[in-house]
Amino acid sequence: MDCKSKNIHYTETELMLLAQLISEEKDIENKRTGATDLKSKAEAWERIVKRYCSEGCTPRTSKQLKKCWDNMKQKYSIFYC
C-alpha cells in the first residue's frame, strides 16, 4: 500500500470507524506477547486495514492505524480503562 497519506489528518468519521473496528477485534488489546498472540494481533490489524479502506477512508497502513490508536488511547483514556 502506498504511504502518500502520511500527512493527511484523520477525520472524526475515520477515528470513529477505527474505534468501532478495533472494538470488534478481541485480539488487539490482548496483552500477551507469545508468538501465536503476536500473529493473531497482526492478522487482526490486517483485517482492520482492509475494512477501514473498504469504507472509502483515506488508505492507511497497519502501522499508521496502530499509531493513531495508540494516540487515541493516550488522548482519550476512556477507550483504555
UniProtKB/TrEMBL annotation:
Involved in transvection phenomena (= synapsis-dependent gene expression), where the synaptic pairing of chromosomes carrying genes with which zeste interacts influences the expression of these genes. Zeste binds to DNA and stimulates transcription from a nearby promoter. Pfam families: Myb_DNA-bind_5. InterPro entries: Myb_DNA-bind_5. The keyword Transcription regulation applies. It comes from the Eukaryota. Keywords: Transcription, Transcription regulation. Residues 10-75 form the Myb/SANT-like DNA-binding domain. Self-associates forming complexes of several hundred monomers. This is Regulatory protein zeste.
